[in-house]
Design goal:
Distance between the termini: 59 Å
Largest sheet: 8 strands, mixed
Number of helices: 7
Number of strands: 14
Radius of gyration: 18 Å
Order of helices and strands: HHEEEEHEHEHEEHEEEHEEE
Low-confidence stretches: none
Length: about 270
């Protein structure tokens, strides 16, 4: 086994143990997707989840990428690739099945799009939306070999391309967007980070329970999170209060509701 293969195997094993991953299919997908295929050539600027500043890898050997580290996409904007342990945990929580249609909002350079591609298999689809035109173009290039992935440059708050079994939001918002709830199929799942202006908040899993037009939903807090804000999200004190309400309420008990009005759950 090469040094790179050994590093990749240790990477998968550590994340599986740390996050108690229950899906063998997810671990197989993680092992099959080369992280270096979704980044420019190294050296890279990386940091651990607890670090405040980046460090530069000593060279461009991909072995440096097989650790639980963030890799800078644009260090000036503090825009990084997703932390592997965090997003693998979220994907596991969503229970993604072969044949499902997954919508990603904010796919970045496409690494987790590739992991999701492996999970849904040839009969499934990944519809990956990226608001940054340059990132979308790079992701489309990196994902050329993944025939069940479609990269779209656009706004994930305006159009999702159709109904979804799973929606994963890779940026912070003050509340779930009604469009996302509307797009969920029966038993569909949404993972969304609800954050304040300081990027701090909680990731919520929302499941569509109802099978009729009433569309009952249930929301529960999954984990605290700090994440890059979504494009066009509000920046007012009211947005902070709405995000804080969701985080507190969903942490106490699962929230059941039928819709969203002014950012908060409603029974209408």
């Amino acid at each position: 086994m090469s040094d790179l293969a050994a590093a990749r195997a240790r990477y998968v094993e550590r994340i599986a143990k740390r996050e108690r991953i229950s899906s063998p299919r997810l671990l197989e997908a993680l092992a099959a997707v080369p992280r270096e295929d979704f980044l420019p050539r190294g050296p890279w600027r990386i940091k651990s989840e607890a670090a405040r500043s980046y460090r530069r890898t000593p060279n461009g050997d991909p072995v440096h990428l097989y650790d639980n580290v963030l890799v800078a996409i644009d260090a000036r904007r503090k825009l990084d690739t997703g932390l592997p342990s965090l997003w693998v945990h979220f994907i596991d929580v969503l229970g993604i099945k072969p044949g499902e249609r997954v919508v990603q909002i904010g796919c970045g350079l496409g690494y987790f799009s590739a992991v999701l591609s492996k999970m849904v298999g040839p009969k499934g689809r990944v519809h990956a939306i990226e608001c940054d035109e340059r990132l979308a173009a790079r992701a489309a290039n990196y994902l050329r070999a993944y025939g069940n992935v479609e990269i779209v440059h656009g706004d994930g708050c305006e159009k999702l391309g159709g109904p979804a079994d799973v929606i994963i939001v890779h940026a912070g918002f003050p509340h779930p967007h009604p469009l996302w709830l509307e797009a969920l199929r029966p038993r569909g799942r949404l993972l969304v980070p609800l954050t304040q202006r300081d990027r701090e908040g909680a990731a919520l899993k929302i499941t569509r329970k109802g099978k009729d037009k009433r569309k009952a939903f249930e929301a529960e807090a999954v984990q605290q999170i700090r994440i890059y804000p979504g494009q066009g999200r509000g920046t007012t004190a009211l947005d902070d209060r709405v995000a804080d309400w969701w985080q507190r309420a969903s942490a106490l008990a699962p929230l059941r509701f039928r819709g969203i009005e002014q950012g908060l759950p409603s029974d209408g």
